[in-house]
Write a structure and sequence with these properties.
- The chain is built from nine helices and twelve strands.
- The chain is α+β, with helices and mostly antiparallel strands.
- The chain has two domains: about 110 residues, Alpha-Beta Complex (Ribosomal Protein L22, Chain A), CATH 3.90.470; about 150 residues, 4'-phosphopantetheinyl transferase domain (Ribosomal Protein L22, Chain A).
- The chain has a four-stranded mixed sheet. The protein has a four-stranded antiparallel sheet with strand order 7-11-10-12, with helices on one face.
- The chain is globular and about 55 Å long.
- The protein starts with 9 loop residues before the first strand and ends with a strand.
Length: about 280
């Protein structure tokens, strides 16, 4: 298994980086994910004399956003996206033209080499993913967020996922349900479908190592890599990547089943404490 499938997102505290690890990961794996807070970038972004050029077609939306917090978050998230794309492409950020597909998925216009982008934010945290040769999706939620499994089970879970989670005690069930939700958000964003695809229409399983896989047997399913990490002490960041230039591997044996993993349901669905990662 490659390093990128295990590595946590990189923390980039401002326009100056650090970017070396981000570029290295993108070159080695074909994707990279960064996280930061809009407060860390705010001063540099707002004082940048090139802010209007950096925002490009987003300048009007930025100026028309009434609430200051929402306006600043919007500006910083787009600047971080531009800087990440510029670093992996080795061009100037103000040379990039950011546009959006139907449904809001960000994309870069007019590039010979296609780079896929994904953006997520909650509270102060901003997460941006970039992928080459295959789509990328990211999602983030506060690990402290409480959601009702009973109310949302039928909308989010397949029957197998629901049964597995129902067998777990609280608060483990809520924690792992939130993790599953962010994984499904990341995957549908990578597909460009977002909330338009019903979350209970597809599921996840776990391979013999406890890593998250799509619960279906198809060559396309085996091209995807998933990860969930805990960052900045309290945020779950889930990623979905389709491997660039994937070489097909033999089919997995029943990714629904836990019996063949040698792991208990709690171990298979668990994620570690601060600084760790799981579900890769």
């Amino acid at each position: 298994m490659s390093r990128g499938e295990w590595a946590a997102p990189e923390h980039v505290a401002g326009p100056e980086g650090p970017w070396d690890a981000v570029r290295e990961r993108f070159e080695e794996e074909g994707w990279a994910v960064v996280h930061t807070t809009w407060g860390q970038w705010l001063t540099a972004a707002l004082l940048d004399p090139q802010l209007r050029t950096l925002l490009g077609r987003d300048w009007t939306r930025y100026r028309q956003t009434p609430a200051p917090a929402g306006r600043f978050r919007f500006a910083v998230s787009r600047v971080v996206m531009k800087y990440l794309a510029a670093e992996v492409l080795q061009v100037s950020p103000d040379a990039l033209d950011l546009a959006y597909q139907p449904g809001g998925r960000p994309r870069l216009r007019g590039l010979g080499e296609e780079v896929h982008l994904s953006l997520a934010h909650t509270d102060e945290l901003i997460v941006v993913g970039a992928g080459r040769g295959g789509p990328v999706g990211v999602d983030v939620e506060s690990a402290a967020r409480r959601v009702s499994f009973d109310l949302l089970r039928e909308h989010v879970c397949t029957p197998q996922e629901g049964a597995l989670l129902a067998a777990l005690p609280e608060p483990e069930r809520t924690d792992r349900f939130l993790r599953l939700w962010t994984l499904k958000e990341a995957y549908t964003k990578a597909l460009g479908q977002g909330m338009r695809r019903r979350f209970n229409a597809f599921g996840f399983g776990w391979d013999e190592h406890g890593h998250t896989v799509l619960a279906e047997e198809s060559p396309a399913a085996r091209t995807w890599v998933f990860a969930t990490h805990l960052v900045q002490g309290g945020y779950l960041v889930s990623e979905a990547h389709r491997r660039p230039g994937t070489v097909e591997t033999p089919p997995r044996t029943d990714p629904h089943a836990l019996e063949g993993t040698g792991l208990s349901p709690a171990r298979t669905l668990s994620f570690p404490g601060p600084g760790g990662s799981a579900g890769r």
